[in-house]
Amino acid sequence: xxxxxxxxxxxxxxxxxxxxxxxxxxxxxxxxxxxxxxxxxxxxxxxxxxxxxxxxxxxxxxxxxxxxxxxxxxxxxxxxxxxxxxxxxxxxxxxxxxxxxxxxxxxxxxxxxxxxxxxxxxxxxxxxxxxxxxxxxxxxxxxxxxxxxxxxxxxxxxxxxxxxxxxxxxxxxxxxxxxxxxxxxxxxxxxxxxxxxxxxxxxxxxxxxxxxxxxxxxxxxxxxxxxxxxxxxxxxxxxxxxxxxxxxxxxxxxxxxxxxxxxxxxxxxxxxxxxxxxxxxxxxxxxxxxxxxxxxxxxxxxxxxxxxxxxxxxxxxxxxxxxxxxxxxxxxxxxxxxxxxxxxxxxxxxxxxxxxxxxxxxxxxx
Length: 366
Ligand code: NAI
Ligand code: MG
Known about the structure:
Bound molecules: 1,4-dihydronicotinamide adenine dinucleotide, magnesium ion
Order of helices and strands: EHEHHEHEHEEEHEHEHEHEEHHH
CATH architecture of the largest domain: 3-Layer(aba) Sandwich
Largest sheet: 10 strands, mixed
Strand order of the largest sheet: 2-1-3-12-11-4-5-10-8-9
Radius of gyration: 21 Å
């Protein structure tokens, strides 16, 4: 069988720096575990614009559609602020998400024990936390028509956005959540505002339909999203998989992420429909951006990008065991007190560099 294929788009700023550590880890898996990938590399964002005047070349887009998974670093930077909106680095990433139709955005919120004191919540509330928020990514109020700012009859203006979801849009993201739940702890909590929004009523009915007809073995509960926000900070460990729409998911996933500490730790995945080989279309990327303030200084924490690769191992390549091996290595390194600058508490200490963190993870893998 052909090796699984991986397209690496390192991008801008700290993107190439954190990706360099992932490439070493990919090398380790090939050498030590006999797990090899067909890896290709290309440009995205400002790097692509500098090379050929577009934030994502058509050939790169075509390649992304063919591979089993895309791994992206970060895009953007102050140098590109002057560019026209149509060629801004972010447009490269948006094009990937849109044309690959990546409708399920997976944002884990996992608390590593060694970092529990970094949370804005008490250790006893976040220790052991491991939840997954599935956010619908391609529809809802960010895309619905009509939208715009219009003049009213009294000489003022009004703004309009439309929350619109179809049955199929809800069902497909619900399926992603139930599939995930089966690989985890078999529990899904769906969040909307069915009490005040018709689109919320439909959301609740359709998620329930998918459950009853296709995933009756998974435990399903429903919660109003505002209560969900309260519960996330009150007692986050009550949740396992949360599925919600684009707007609520944007807010709830950022909120959940901060329960666990630094931006430099947070991975993500965006999944689409299954391809001919059964694997979902997939893009993996750290949540953070290109961090221009620390780019080029070897200070960036590569863990978010490393954990994004671990998600690729699990969700695209069905290598859950290898994914766990990598996550355990990260956990060991953190438990040993290895810290990049973003993970230093007020007590201080000496931070390791980006490659120093990569060295430590490789050593822990060995
Ligand atoms: P950012 O995530 O790049 O940085 C925010 C803060 O977190 C900075 O102080 C940065 O140094 C720190 N930080 C981020 N990642 C880190 C890491 N791995 N290790 C240590 N510290 C880290 O967000 P910001 O500053 O709002 O945006 C900077 C640029 O990145 C902009 O051009 C923005 O458009 C772009 N961006 C790109 C994203 C992407 O590629 N998915 C997402 C967010 C922003
Ligand atoms: Mg957000």
